[in-house]
Amino acid sequence: IFEYNGSAIVAMVGKNCFAIASDRRLGVQLQTIATDFQRIYKIHDKLFIGLAGLATDAQTLYQKLVFRHKLYQLREERDMKPQTFASLVSALLYEKRFGPFFCQPVIAGLGDEDKPFICTMDSIGAKELAKDFVVAGTASESLYGACEAMFKPDMEAEELFETISQALLSSVDRDCLSGWGGHVYVVTATEVTERILKGRMD
């Protein structure tokens, strides 16, 4: 069921910045339905979540998370830190563990002193933290290989964009369930840059 719609998501850290990227294909197994599907969602200016897995569950989960985050903003009068948000997502998924959301979230954000934070988790909320990159989706095996080969510590925003884009595009070429270009966000302390990558087939 996790492979029903196909997906590829990767988040990578740089020097006081991070990038998160996904493919744009929405399929029903091998049939392509849309080529401009949104998999990465903005929670606030310094926090993004990518949801791989079943597309309908991803959209439902996102709406629940937006609701929880807005409540937090009202109560605390501030944005949620990435670590806090990761715990929220984890708790929400674990709550539904006997009938889980078929989603694999990738969370990326800037925490205190603009230190990048990335993590992913399985469908019942078991967190996996990393200091370099995290991947999710049907293309995750080839993403691991590409990221392992291309990642360098302390990259500036522009080099980070180049690296994550190359890793994503070369990985989805090796997975028939994901692809059709990419959607990349590069986030620094002062700005959010959003770019659309053309796929090899466009």
From TrEMBL:
GO terms under biological process: proteasome-mediated ubiquitin-dependent protein catabolic process
Family annotation (SUPFAM superfamilies): N-terminal nucleophile aminohydrolases (Ntn hydrolases)
Compartments, record wording: Cytoplasm; Nucleus
Keyword annotations: Cytoplasm, Nucleus, Proteasome
Keyword Zinc part of the UniProt annotation: no
Similarity field: Belongs to the peptidase T1B family.
Subunit: Component of the proteasome complex.
Name of the featured protein: Proteasome subunit beta
Organism of this sequence: Actinidia chinensis var. chinensis (Chinese soft-hair kiwi)
